[in-house]
Protein: DNA-binding transcriptional dual regulator, O-acetyl-L-serine-binding
Organism: mine drainage metagenome
Amino acid sequence: MKLQQLRYLVEVVEAGLNVSQAADNLFTSQPGVSKQIRLLEDELGVEIFVRNGKRVVSITPAGQEILTLARRVLLEARNLKTAGQEFSRQRAGQLTVATTHTQARYVLPPVIVQFAQRYPEVKLVLHQGNPLHVAQEVVAGRADLAIATEGLDLFPDLRILPCYQWNRILVAKPDHPLLALEHLTLEALAQYPMITYDHAFTGRARINQAFERQGLSPNVVLTALDADVIKTYVRVGMGVGVIAAMAYDQNLDRDLRARDMAHLFEPSLTRIALRAGTYLRGFVYDFIQLFAPALDRTRVENALAAPAPNPEDESS
């Protein structure tokens, strides 16, 4: 049995049972992937996949158990390599952070500057995507940590730590009637075209819930993946924008006006997610604490060692 065979197995599952896609992701050939998985099945004496001709169509019950163990073995293999790097080159290496546009554009820059000054020999890589994508990056071992607001709870292999709360603001052209109201309400907001985040991003669920509780339907005319695009369409007159408060910059957005909306929406919580059982380099702990000062090494280590939470015990 080879680690390579386990990597091929996991990648085929990650690629949605598409062997060709898995081979492309692994920079190898489809026949090579199929052959190694067949050899693994022969050695274990069970079929991992159900096949229809040459096509993989599902994973067997035995395959599910083997997949779980394979992921555990690959994680420990990565941990061994990481531990060696930690003791041989403590202040050099690579840190890969998976995060959303809002965090990468508006929150992380000062943290990254501080980190780069402290660890000039560490290569920092940012993977951007929606919350589900960045969580999957950590689960698959392609990123060391994820920073997002939604989606992280869907992955039992992740351990999640709270970082900071934030809320939303209204952005509009200076002459918009909503800016002149003494008391901004959801009823008033619902009367105007609104531009905000896509459903998968940056606290959109909180916006929907607030309107639903009051029996209102927002007039959402456009959704986007990041605040910069939302502000662009506010500027051309498509509507008013509802964005994360940290996405408004008084210097860069001088042609727009902002108004606090914390009284209208429940706050959202940005969190860090780590793969349970992962061995982290010392500089990863430092990065986490730069981003969220309350998350010291002891707290992070305790979270990594904790069992997966029971969804029935968590509040909605």
User: Anything to note?
Assistant: The chain has eleven helices and twelve strands.
